[in-house]
Design brief:
330 residues; alpha/beta; 8-stranded mixed β-sheet; 12 strands
Length: 330
């Protein structure tokens, strides 16, 4: 079979091919696991399997190789995948354009403080007629999966920490080089300092969300920063959800925490900026390719306004950035 001759974007395609079948195909191709793909689409696994079989029947060939241990794309499935994604993106744009009433834009800000929250607040003030609904995911890695699944529209974080295949399916725009900080117990030996030089943390262990798959880009940033400095990342720990639980766990375990200069208040702990050099976390605004929503323009304008007003894109002399982190704007 030559799937190329059967694609929706070419002549000879079944013009009534249901986009639901392509969405099922794309989800399984992303997850390479039928159970996870079904959960992502909020359908039963049996229904998802039926949709895949129906699509294979329509196209006249197998799209996946299935064994008891793994699922892989066939050569024909791999050829179909980029076309299917384009069709789905166009279908989503058409649905948005035909909507009689503008839907809310779902924006992940991580926490009610920091760069993302400031951008969202400014966008709401500048565009009061648009509805922005905040979400509070703990990391960009998890939020990116939600964006690609259509359950979230926009998030913020270190785009360079995402895998290249994920990043290629997203748009991203650098918003800020956010200075990093350390959250210390009030009785810590460094707590009285106004700022903490990185070398002073040699021999320390800091919590950097290791063990939480949703925050993999932040843990990776910490490991790059700590390398060669004698600083350790705390052992993996289950993901912590919500401010109250974060405060409880961190205080109970006596952790010091790698943070940003704008962070939630934790009673009994102090936030100190890191220096010598000043480490920077590149924060980008990230959204799904093909997303069309007037609120998106308001967010981009608010991000640009924040950068201009507060110097968010300026780097202190000698500042540290992750190697090869200057990504082209997509």
């Amino acid at each position: 079979m030559a799937i190329d001759a059967l694609l929706l974007l070419t002549a000879g395609v079944p013009h009534d091919l249901d986009p639901r079948l392509l969405r099922a195909f794309a989800a399984v191709a992303d997850e390479l696991h039928f159970t996870r793909a079904a959960a992502r689409l909020f359908v039963a696994q049996q229904a998802l399997s039926r949709d895949i079989r129906r699509l294979e029947q329509r196209l006249g060939g197998e799209l996946f190789t299935r064994t008891t241990r793994q699922v892989t794309l066939t050569a024909e499935g791999a050829r179909l995948l980029p076309y299917a994604r384009r069709v789905l993106a166009a279908h989503d744009e058409l649905a948005a354009a035909c909507a009689r009433q503008e839907r809310p834009l779902l924006v992940d800000v991580g926490a009610p403080v920091g760069t993302a929250h400031q951008v969202l607040t400014a966008a709401r003030a500048a565009a009061p007629d648009h509805e922005f609904v905040a979400r509070f995911h703990s990391g960009l890695t998890g939020a990116a999966a939600e964006i690609l699944a259509g359950r979230l529209d926009v998030s913020f974080g270190r785009a360079g920490g995402l895998g290249p295949e994920v990043r290629a399916r997203l748009c991203h725009r650098l918003v800020r080089y956010e200075p990093m900080a350390v959250l210390l117990p009030a009785g810590h030996r460094l707590a009285e300092r106004a700022a903490v030089p990185l070398d002073a943390l040699s021999g320390e262990t800091l919590y950097a969300a290791a063990g939480n798959p949703d925050t993999a880009e932040w843990t990776d940033l910490a490991e790059r920063l700590f390398e060669g400095r004698g600083i350790e990342v705390a052992a993996p720990f289950p993901g912590i959800e919500g401010k109250e639980e974060f405060v409880r766990v961190v205080r109970k375990r006596g952790w010091s925490v790698l943070a940003s200069v704008e962070f939630i208040d934790v009673p009994g702990m102090v936030l100190r900026p890191l220096t010598d050099p000043v480490p920077l976390s590149p924060v980008s605004m990230v959204w799904r390719r093909g997303l069309a929503h007037p609120g998106l323009d308001a967010l981009r304008d608010a991000a640009a306004g924040g950068a201009a007003a507060h110097g968010w894109l300026e780097r202190p002399p000698g500042a540290w950035l992750p190697p090869d982190e200057d990504l082209p704007r997509r």
